[in-house]
Amino acid sequence: MAAAILFFIIKIIGGTLNSDVQKDFHLILDFHLETKVFIIISVIIFICLLCLVEGLILSLINKKQIFRNNYDELTTLWSRTKFEREAEKLIRLNPQDKFMLIETDIKQFKFINQNYSEEKADELILYYASVLEIFNENNKGILCRGFADHFYLFFKIKSVRAAMKKFTDDLARVNNKIKSYEIPFFPKFGISFLIEKGEDRTTTVQTLIGHASFAKSTVKDHAFTQYAIYNTHLVRRVKEEQYLEDHMQEALEKHEFFVVYQPKISLTDEKICGGEALVRWNNPKFGIIGPDKFIPLFERNGFIKQLDFFVYEEVFKFIQNQINLGQPMVPISVNMSRNHDKAEKFVHDFIQLFSNYSIPPEMIELEIIERSFMNSETLVDITEKLHKHGFKVAMDDFGTGESSLNLITKVPVDTLKFDRSFLTDYKGKDDKLDDKSKVFIKSLIGLSKNLKKGTIFEGVETEHQRDFLKSVDCDSVQGFLYSKPLTVSDFIEYQKKNI
After folding, report:
1. pTM across the whole model
2. Of 128, 144, 278, 297, which has the most beta carbons under 10 Å away?
3. Residue 367 above 80 pLDDT?
4. Are the CB atoms for 336 and 368 separated by under 8 Å?
5. Could you please report the per-residue DSSP string of 383-398?
6. Domains (ranges, CATH) in the chain?
């Protein structure tokens, strides 16, 4: 561009000189020679400066392009392109070494971005990047930012076992550090390993990233675990879940789901005082499947709502049949999954189904979940509406959430059902409850009594547990000490013998 301008100016000046020579030499005197020289020199200097500026601009553009290709603009960490290139180089230069690749992002980051503004989201990304840099330095690896909240780490390891031990230790430190951040956030991780040795390795960095990403995708946003490792077991489990998901509607229509009942026992006289309805799946491919295999899946895809109402109707039919036959019948509790977040609709649908049967409402108890995605206002609304229709309400898994004491003063439930973890996670050397656990459980039971709530413990498996709970005035229990979940016919027989 600058060269073109110089050529144009010289042409004009040159053309003028030729014209003047042809017309009259004396006209040259109209232009002072010094002025022409000054103009030419000025133009040359201007053009040189223009060339210099043009060169600087091109250089800056080139440098910026190089930076963008190799570094992330927000965090200044490596870009994924550079990360993959450097990781491949490490693999190539260290054919006998094993490697670990980690992909991490933030649970429900889209929610944070929408509710705290993009600026706050960027600040969170920068903070998390700084935390990961410390993590990376401890492992002497390489780190990059991919897109949005996605980060990748890659480093050498001695063995998978040792690497996972170090990872869990580092993860504990990461979790401890991020507690102080102003916006609550929870990272999740997908992990893959390169354990092939030799020059003929076929696994690429992109493959490792794909495996880690797949593993991370199995760590759902409402799950308590933070990481998953890519392996054949994981792939098999995901395929099984896909099969179950593909056949769940058909299974419901074919009545492959069925209800079992676990007795509840009064600690006053050790007689049956109720039962809990639980669902099982008689699958043609896998046989009898327990709820731990399909309930989390159905909670994620929303199918649990349909399954809940299937269970409700099966229970109503069972109670109605017992009443019609004049047989004794204890109250049955049914579970309300965490997915029912609209109180008005749930209660309307529940009452509409219940109205098809002539059953006293006191024969039904709804168990709501403390660790629910519903807020306390929704739980209160549902409980009050159910009370108006004569149903009892229990809070399931009480004591495992973070706001337990706050909840029981807000949600007017009739019964508090304590999670089995109180009995299984706090044992002494003799496999009995330690003293601190006993004091804690006693205080919880006492608090419940002061608030005029009924109390029940699930997961009771030993006489020691039963005797302790009786000594602290717990109302009732359920667990294998008395009975496993029973089929309809077996539950009827159990009632006859223990009512």
Report:
1. 0.66
2. 144
3. yes
4. yes
5. HHHHHHTT-EEEEEEE
6. 2-70 (no CATH), 80-230 (3.30.70.270), 254-498 (3.20.20.450)
